[in-house]
Amino acid sequence: MGGTATGVPQLYKLVLEAKSKEKPGTKVTAKAVGVSDLARHRRKYNADYSVVVGPDFPTTQKEKSALAQMIKDDRDKNPGKGITLIRIEDMAKLVRIVHPKTANLKKLKELFEQCSIPEESAQWINNLSAEKTEKPPYKELLDAIYSEQKDMPRQAIGYDNVVTCLRKDYNLTLDKTEVIELCKALSKMAPGYVFARKSTVELNQRPDKVLQAISSITGQCAEEDNKKSKTT
Question: Which of 106, 39, 120, 110 is nearest to 76 (CA)?
Fold first, then answer.
C-alpha cells in the first residue's frame, strides 16, 4: 500500500497462524492459542497483527472469556498492534467474497483493527458480504483484453494497452493500477482462464465463457452460505 497524500505510510504486516484439533467439533484451547507466543512471533517478524485461524475458540462468553481478556490486554499494552481470531468457515467465506466485493488491503485492515474474538470476525465478514458494491467493469475489461489479443496475436498484452483500449473503445477511464487489480481479481475468480502477470495479462477463453464461469462459482458460494445460515 502506498502512502497518503500527506506522506503517511499505510502499509502493514501480519503473521498468520493456524491451529487444529485432532477431534472434530472441539475448540482450540486458550493455552493452545498462546497469546504470549503470538505476541512474541509478532515482534520477531516486526508485524502489526497476528491472525489465528482455527475450527473454533473458547470465547462463547464473548468479552468476558479469559481468552478475550488476554487479547484485549495485549491490544491495550501494544497500541496499533492486535490479535484476531477467525474460525475456518469464516475465513473460507472471506476468501470467497474478497474479490467480488473488491475488498482491498485498506478495507481488510479494518478486520484486524476492529476484531479480536471470532464472533466479531464473523460479524465483520457477514457485514462485508451484505454490502452493496458497484459492479466492477469485468465485461468491458475482458472484451478489451480479448480485442487486443486478436489485434496483436504475436505479443503479450501489456496493461497499458488495455488502459488505452478501454478509454478509446469503451469510453471507460481506469488507471493502470485499477486495471491490474481488476485483472488479478479475475485471475482468482477464473483460474486457468485469466492470467494476470507482473506486466502483462493473458486471456485463454472467450469473455462470455469467463463470465459464465465466474457467475457459476459465485452462485455456488452464495448457495452454500445460504444453507449454512439456515442451519445456524
Answer: 39
